[in-house]
Amino acid sequence: MHYLKDYRPWDFDLSETRMDICIHDNSVEVRTRLILSRKKDSEIKAPLFLHGEELEILEISLDGRLLSPKEFLQDSKGLTIFDVPDTFTLFTRVRIFPDQNTALEGLYRAGGMLCTQCEAEGFRKITFYPDRPDVMATFRVRIEADKKRYPALLSNGNPMEKQDLDGGRHSLVWEDPHPKPSYLFALVAGDLACLKDRFHTAEGLDVSLEIYTEHENADKSGHAMKSLKKAMHWDELVFGLSYDLSTYMIVATNDFNMGAMENKGLNIFNSKYVLAKPDTATDTDFEGIESVIAHEYFHNWTGNRVTVKNWFQLSLKEGLTVFRDQEFTSDMQSRSVKRIQDVRSLRARQFPEDAGPMAHPIRPEAYMEMNNFYTATVYDKGAEVIRMIHTIIGPESFRKGMDLYFKRHDGRAVTCEDFVVAMEDASGKDLSRFRLWYSQAGTPIVYASTELDKEKSILYLTLKQEVPDTPGQSDKKPMTLPVKAAFFNEKGEQAFLEFRGRKGDAFLLLLESEEETFVFEGASEGLVPSLLREFSAPVHLKTNLEDKDLALLLAMDTDPFNRWEAGRILINRTLLGLMEDYREKRELHLPEGLLLAFGTVLENADKDPALAAEILSMPTEIELYHLLAAEKIPVSPPEVHDVRNFLLDRLAFGLKDLWERAFENFQTPGDYVFKAEDVARRKMKNLALFWLSRLPDTGFEMVGRAYKEAECMTDRMAALSLAAHFEDQGVKEMLDAFSRQFEKDALVMDKWFQVQALSLRPDTLKRVRELMSHPAFSMKNPNKVRALIGAFCSGNPLRFHQKDGSGYNFLAEMVMELDILNPQVGSRMVSVFNPWKTFAEPWRSAMEKALKDIDSKENLSPDIREVVGRALG
């Protein structure tokens, strides 16, 4: 176990790293030269320890003298040299075997190319090195390989020296002038197509932009290039940050554990977030590419130029960069819809994490396996913490704080505290209490109530907060919560009130104690509070608003997020009521008010189709599991499915004419264009198709017609995913035709796997097992595993949560297989079991048994052992 309290700086300084990497047919030889000096305040004569795993030693020399085996010790963690001088040059020569590396960490083979993934601790599988983020050095890297097999030789920095060598080999030297930690090292070697463009920075630098793909995908990187140029321009415009090398490269690979990696100047991407064209990618794919391309580019400053002192500070770079990519996407697309989507993701992924066995602060105090802490808490909640600082100090002070942060810490490894101090110094605001967000886990619960003094025309708003206990933390202190607020009268007009001597129609309230009452003057009777506008703090908000108040906010609130939120609360209340009736065996009825509210939104959808589509989208069954868990109601999957289906069917039938009209009115004639307006129209049209597919007599016929008439992948997948639920011979014909058409496109085949894994047909688990034998599937490829096994286990609750435990046994079997091949992917899969204690019997006991079966496996990896151990408690 690693603890934040045990952190101490390394005993040595590393000024320069030189590497000579020789690629052969079945192995790679890595020669590394390090110039080191002992720090003056370090322990006298402490031995030198360098991380290193799965390395075959060929040579070790110190200042040119070959060391004997008695002078060093190699174990499973690394290399210890017992006696080193105060200043010295260390040379190591090792052999590694990328073709055998199925964990996809370090240097590994991905199809015809070799590539790296070094974050968090992969560099130690390449050479002996101080593999920790606070050790930074300049790198000079020479790569040598067969020219025909590996014409492209890429690494960080600027290309320097290129040579043709004897025997059909060649070499290329890369030099990175910016000191960096080893986790940012990257190397790619392969026969790749390259799309090139240029970008002229605001500081006058002419940058060569290069996106590398496999040759068959050369025509799919145009959108990624446009996204990159947008991101570079936006970062200059909004944050004044320009790129700093002569070359910026992106490489797309099908074999990658993560979404992408921000290695300095050479970003390595999962191909899912690079490759797109209208007949193979959906609107969601295009949006994802734009966002992730931007995210990794923004890391050039928030993560690379300023990096983290230790891995406990991970949210310093990830939370901040997620906030930046959210702001970018908001400016490129729809700000209100982006906010809703981000909050839905936060509630679906991070809130359950906060309420479960893996709960941890955004700066954790301890970890067993670092790869397990690339979590929604670190990323998504981390971004919300940055957003709260932005809200509290204001956009101008936030920009000044960012400028100060870079001025102070450029080229350094720092802490979350350093960032907060820069914000305090730039704004003059004391954020000492706010720092609790970095050290306390859990999602605060805020209770809101109002009281009107009619005689004095004063409205009292009382906010009270609770921070629940989480594993290892109890008796929490009150958090600092920015609460954006407004009030609406019975006509839906925003009220003009006075608060602390300032008159206005919108207010920022800071709740810093356990309970506080805020006083508003000039109030009239019947005011409805609109609280937590724009979701100004990541909390659970509990109010005593009646359904009529929520209906008013749904129709009239000037904050789009709170319009959506009002609708979501109405739906959730309805579903909770229906579930109670279902359990008590009472007849189910759809509230007339909900049907009316939905109909009103649908009739006016043309005013803002993107927002209307979000409001009219139902909570998923998994979201309802989280709702029940928050209400301390044991989850019964069949009950949730039946009640949600009842509501879906009634809304589909009750608004049939409006859904049909929407399907026709939101068509997008002409060629596919990825732009916000068309994306919104397609979203509304395909949402209408979803509702119409519920109609018993015409649903499948309409879905089939939509599939045949689809002219882009967005529409084709919308129809195919709906068709997959039907038990009809025509479905098999659709799926077979789809696979024949796209069998050579790996990403499209992932969609094909996923559609079948998410099918509600009773035989879906049997079909998933059959598809594991399909030629396009491989357990060694994370994208395939996520598309088929991951989609079934985490995205198909009805078929995964079978009473007989067959779904759980399947997942346990897959996790134990992945434990050998790729523990990182396995640990993410097994986390599906984390909320097992929130389920009713027999599901609860069946999941516990599956966890114990995994836990009993001998030599279980630390990645999976940690998640399973914490789940079992």
Automatic annotation (TrEMBL):
Residues 442-543 form the Peptidase M1 alanyl aminopeptidase Ig-like fold domain. Its EC number is 3.4.11.2. Residues 224-434 form the Peptidase M1 membrane alanine aminopeptidase domain. Its cofactor is Zn(2+). It catalyses: Release of an N-terminal amino acid, Xaa-|-Yaa- from a peptide, amide or arylamide. Xaa is preferably Ala, but may be most amino acids including Pro (slow action). When a terminal hydrophobic residue is followed by a prolyl residue, the two may be released as an intact Xaa-Pro dipeptide. Residues 547-872 form the Peptidase M1 alanyl aminopeptidase C-terminal domain. Keywords: Aminopeptidase, Hydrolase, Metal-binding, Metalloprotease, Protease, Zinc. SUPFAM superfamilies: Leukotriene A4 hydrolase N-terminal domain, Metalloproteases ('zincins'), catalytic domain. Coiled coil: none annotated. GO terms for molecular function: alanyl aminopeptidase activity; metallopeptidase activity; zinc ion binding. CDD domains: M1_APN (cd09600). One of its GO terms (biological process) is proteolysis. Residues 14-184 form the Aminopeptidase N-like N-terminal domain. Belongs to the peptidase M1 family. This is Aminopeptidase N. It comes from Desulfobotulus mexicanus.
